């Protein structure tokens, strides 16, 4: 079993930055692919970014490419999402997830509770 806890969300002005963290418990973190998803009010949850178990392969949604960076520290059982040049349309609840593949369309087996990110214009 893997438990995920997100942190780092908050209110920021457009153009600002935030760094989200996701701390994982469980023995198998270093063998799991990890991802970030988000859900805005009235919209479906969407893929944001993912990273392979070894940190080598990363994927990004087109809407965040060049602005967001995903990384992981397996020694700390933690992944990060550095978000720069934030836009109001980035406002959403951001969820951390763990699974067997970092493909954007892969199923993820474990999910965190989410952290709110609000970007004001």
Estimated helix fraction = under 10%
Report the oligomer. Answer: single chain
The fraction of residues assigned to DSSP E strands is: over 45%
- The count of DSSP E runs of length 2 or more, i.e. the number of strands, is 11
Structural classification = mainly beta
**What count of helical segments does DSSP give?**
0
3D shape: globular
Sheet with the most strands? 7 strands, mixed
Overall mean pLDDT stands at: 96
* Rounded Rg: 13 Å
Series of secondary-structure elements, N-terminal to C-terminal: EEEEEEEEEEE
Stretches with pLDDT under 50, minimum 5 residues: none
Q: Terminal Cα separation, in Å?
A: 40 Å
Structure, described:
With 121 residues, the protein is mostly beta strands. 0% of the residues lie in helices and 52% in strands. The strands form two sheets. Strands 2, 4, 5, 6, 9, 10 and 11 form a seven-stranded mixed β-sheet that branches. It has a four-stranded antiparallel β-sheet with strand order 1-3-8-7, with no helix packed on it. Strand 4 and strand 5 form a beta hairpin. It starts with a strand and ends with a strand. The model has no long low-confidence stretch (mean pLDDT 96).
Q: How is the topology of this model organized?
A:
Blueprint (H helix, E strand, L loop, with lengths): L2 E5 L2 E4 L4 E8 L7 E7 L6 E6 L6 E3 L7 E6 L4 E6 L8 E8 L8 E4 L3 E6 L1
Parallel strand pairs: 2-11
Antiparallel strand pairs: 1-3, 3-8, 4-5, 4-9, 5-6, 7-8, 9-10, 9-11
Descriptors for this entry?
four-stranded antiparallel sheet; 121 residues; single chain; mainly beta
């Amino acid at each position: 079993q893997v438990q995920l806890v997100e942190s780092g969300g908050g209110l920021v002005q457009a153009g600002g930055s935030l760094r989200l963290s996701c701390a994982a418990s469980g023995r198998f973190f270093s063998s799991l692919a990890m991802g970030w998803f988000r859900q805005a009010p009235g919209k479906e949850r969407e893929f944001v970014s993912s990273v392979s178990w070894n940190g080598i392969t990363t994927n990004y949604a087109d809407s965040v490419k060049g602005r967001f960076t995903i990384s992981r520290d397996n020694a700390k059982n933690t992944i990060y999402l550095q978000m720069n040049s934030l836009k109001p349309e980035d406002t959403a609840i951001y969820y951390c997830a763990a699974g067997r593949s970092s493909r954007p369309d892969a199923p993820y087996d474990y999910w965190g509770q989410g952290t709110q990110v609000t970007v004001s214009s």
